[in-house]
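Justification of resources, computational component.

The compute hours requested in this renewal are based largely on the per-chain cost of generating structure records like the one below. Each record pairs the submitted sequence with a full structure-token output. That output is archived, and it is also reused by downstream analysis tasks.
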Amino acid sequence: MNAYAPILVLGALGAAFAIFSVIAATLIGPKRYNRAKLDAYECGIEPTPQPAGGGRFPIKYYLTAMLFIVFDIEIVFLYPWAVTFDSLGIFGLVEMLLFVLTVFVAYAYVWRRGGLEWD
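The structure output for this chain reads:
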């Protein structure tokens, strides 16, 4: 139990800070409410009516999400390499250079095809 004491103390401090922040914000924060502040925030664009079952999302939304996930997962492979860089030697350096080159080629291909433009 002695090994978990710092983790418990850190968790308690984090929870206390979160609770304190919420309470302090409600007590100290401005209280000038009006109709515009209470409306739902829609990125400055007036919301358009949607069908009863919900609207269809454009395919561009899903493609952008998939591209983000693919590049994000590829970059995650850099962390274990960075941790074991010394023990891998020149082999690890060459392999990671090839990996990063492959990621950049894929990125350039997506960029060239217009996959990163949001129209």
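The two ends are 56 Å apart (CA to CA). The chain is about 65% helix and 0% strand.
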